[in-house]
User: Fold this.
Amino acid sequence: MNRLLASALFAMAAAGLPAAPATAHHGWSGYDQSRTVRLSGRVEASSWGNPHGTLELTDSGKRWRVILAPTARMTTRGLAEGDIAVGRSVRVEGYASTSDPTELRAERIIVGDKTVELR
Assistant:
């Protein structure tokens, strides 16, 4: 096989491989879906980015890291980046992580009188 053909075949095969970050991203099976957790508090930190947004808040003296939806989904469903800005009061409903007692996967977020379904 000549080098040009071998290079072309290698490039085509490599293009079909998934990217490392995609394979490293966690799935949702690590959350306890048998019990809904409800949190309320002021946003202490937030991130508006992919693969999903996040925020941190303290509820009943415990600081939580909340995993939100991808930004495109949040925008489409009516949640703006400013809605989760530091200092905003939010309520979040979702499922706690089975491996990290301070992490919650949000199913919905309530900002003011607006409820946004995230899943």
Observations:
- Strands lie at 37-47, 54-59, 62-67, 89-96, 103-111, 114-117.
- Residues 3-15 form the longest helix (13 residues).
